[in-house]
Amino acid sequence: MGLSDFLLPERLPRQVVYAGDRHGEIFTLSKQRIVRRLRVEAAALADPGASDGWPKIAERLQPVDTGVILNSDPFIFNFIEFDKLQWSRKLLRELVDWKLQKIFPEDIAAYDHRFFRLNKKRILSILVKKSLLAHIEAEFREKGIPLITIGNSALEIFNRLAKLRRPPDFFVETDVSSCCLVFQKLGAPIYVRKFKSGSLEELAAEIGKTVQFVRNNSGCDPRRFELIDHREEVSPEELAEQLAQEGLSCPNAIRAVPAPYIPGCR
User: CB 175: neighbour CB atoms within 10 A?
Assistant: First the structure.
C-alpha cells in the first residue's frame, strides 16, 4: 500500500530510539537483530517543552546512524475519500491539502504532512508538527549523532503485520497514558483511533466500544487482534483476558519478534 517511503530510510539505522509516553527505549541493531536494548525513564519525549527527555536519551547513544520511532500520540491520522483520485502526484497533493484544510482546524503549514493512496478513492493522511521534528533533529545535531529517520510506531507495526499470511483484524498499541487502535481490511488500514488509556477495565471497555463502531460502520467483523504493550509493570495477558470476554482473541500476544515497532529488526 505504499507506506514504505515513510517507514524505510535509504539505509537502516544501527540504533533506534523508541519514544514512548514517559520513557525512551534504545535499541542497538546488528544484522537486523536486536543485540541490546535499554529503557530510560524520561519525561514525555513528544513534548518539546519536556526539557529532561531527549538529553537523558542522547547521553546514552553511540555516534552512529540512528532512527527515532515516535509513538502515535503526536500524530494525527485522517482518512479522506474522493470520487476519483488524481494520478499526478502534484495535483493529488493540492487536492488532498485543499480537502484536509476544510476539515482540519489548524494551519497545515505547521505540520509535516504525508499521505498514502489506499485505493482508487481513499487516502490516508498523516500529520505531525514540524516543531517537534525540528526539536528532535536539533537535539541529535547538538550531540553529533547522525539522525537518518523519524517514524511512527503504529505504521511500523501495521507494515509488519500486513505481511503475515493471516494478519490480525486490528492491533492495540498501548502505553502508560495512551492507546492506539489500527483496523485493517484487505491489507489496508480502514480506521485509526487514539485515546488516553485509564485502568485495565476502562481500557478494555474503550477497545470494545471501538470494535463495535467498526463493525457498525465498515462492513467487517473484527475478532482477532495483536497486542503491543509498552508498559513495564503490566502483563499484556491481563488486557488480552479482559478482551476475550468481549469475544476478541489474541493468539499472538507474545510474538516472536521482540519489538515489531522497530524498523529492520527480526
Answer: 20
pLDDT for res 70: 93
- What CA dihedral angle connects 40, 75, 200 and 214, to 10 degrees? -150
For the purposes of burial, counting CB atoms within 10 Å of the CB of 63, is it exposed (0-12), middle (13-18) or buried (19 or more)? exposed
Cell 476544510 belongs to residue:
102
pTM of the predicted structure, to 2 decimals? 0.90
Distance CA 148, CA 10 (A): 8
**Cα 180 → chain centroid:** 8
Q: Is the Cβ–Cβ distance between 133 and 112 less than 8 Å? A: yes
pLDDT for the residue 113: 92
142-167 burial, b if ≥16 CB within 10 A, otherwise e? Answer: ebebebbbbbbbbbbbbbbbeeeeeb
Q: What is the 3-state secondary structure (H, E, C) of the chain?
A: CCCHHHHCCCCCCCEEEEECCCEEEEEEEECCEEEEEEEEECCCCCCCCCCCHHHHHHCCCCCCCEEEEECCCCCEEEEEECCCCCCCHHHHHHHHHHHHHHHCCCCHHHEEEEEEECCCCEEEEEEEEHHHHHHHHHHHHHHCCCEEEEEEHHHHHHHHHCCCCCCCCEEEEECCCCEEEEEEECCEEEEEEEECCCCHHHHHHHHHHHHHHHHHHHCCCCCEEEEEECCCCCCHHHHHHHHHCCCCECCCCCCCCCCCCCCCCC
Say what the pLDDT of residue 4 is. Answer: 41
Arithmetic mean of pLDDT, 207-230 = 94
Instruction: For residue 246, name the pLDDT band (cuts at 50, 70, 90).
Output: confident
